[in-house]
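== Folding the chain ==

***
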Amino acid sequence: MKIKPTDKELEILQVLWDKGPSTVREVNEQLSQDKEIGYTTTLKFMQIMHEKGIVSRELFGKTHRYTALINKTSIQQTLVEQLMETAFQGSAMKMVMQVLGNKKSSAKELKEIKEYIDKLNSEQK
């Protein structure tokens, strides 16, 4: 079974992936930089995530420290696969064309994309 975190869970996971093991307060402070979110709301989400097996927690002094149990790359892969199947009828080309058409990519990004495509082409030969 593939875990599909909610949007809020993904925000919390992003903090844990970026900062490493963190307390609820640390996660809440990071999330609050973008939009107001109450400490108890963050706490409740993290408790639910612990129950789901998305994060682990260990007692660190008088507080809990949470750690992401799921890999960032595997979640990204699952979400991309799901989006490609549901929104683009399984077509990677349609999805990539939509992404590239929606956001102006920098010359550096386009160069890296081209290099990646060239690498994929050479591996298929």
